[in-house]
Design a protein that fits this description.
By secondary structure, the chain is an all-alpha fold. It has one domain. 82% of the residues lie in helices and 0% in strands. It has four helices and no strands. Helix 1 packs antiparallel against helix 2, helix 1 packs antiparallel against helix 4 and helix 2 packs antiparallel against helix 3. The two termini are 23 Å apart.
């Protein structure tokens, strides 16, 4: 049972990242940056829920780390700020007009890609 909570937290974290960044990437590449009318309103509750869950699970995962090298905290801070950027942009893109929506979701997709790179680096630092 003691191993289930950290594993579930990691699964929740990755699943929510897939929802947020996957939605932005799908919009950018498949829909050319513009959701069909009404799609943003249907995706908004998912984006809000995924944003809250990713922040909660990320904080839990961070607090479970005990001995990490010095650069870990700096890289984690950058990753955290980029994650806040992605969450805010995806939620705002659900309400934006089509001209802004394309630019917003492209920025979220790029930030999501950088977050994945930083996550890999953090994983190598913590092992």
């Amino acid at each position: 049972m003691n191993e289930f909570i950290p594993l579930a937290s990691r699964w929740i974290h990755i699943l929510c990242a897939m929802i947020l960044v996957g939605g932005a990437l799908f919009s950018h590449f498949a829909l050319r940056g513009q959701w069909p009318p009404g799609t943003g309103l249907r995706f908004r509750p998912w984006a809000l829920g995924a944003g809250a869950a990713i922040l909660a699970s990320g904080l839990y995962n961070f607090l479970q780390k005990t001995a990490v090298p010095k650069p870990y905290h700096m890289v984690f801070g950058i990753k955290f700020l980029l994650a806040l950027h992605v969450i805010a942009v995806v939620v705002l893109a659900c309400r934006a007009d089509s001209a802004k929506q394309s630019r917003l979701l492209t920025g979220a997709a790029v930030s999501g890609f950088v977050i994945v790179l930083l996550s890999g680096y953090l994983r190598s630092l913590s092992q």
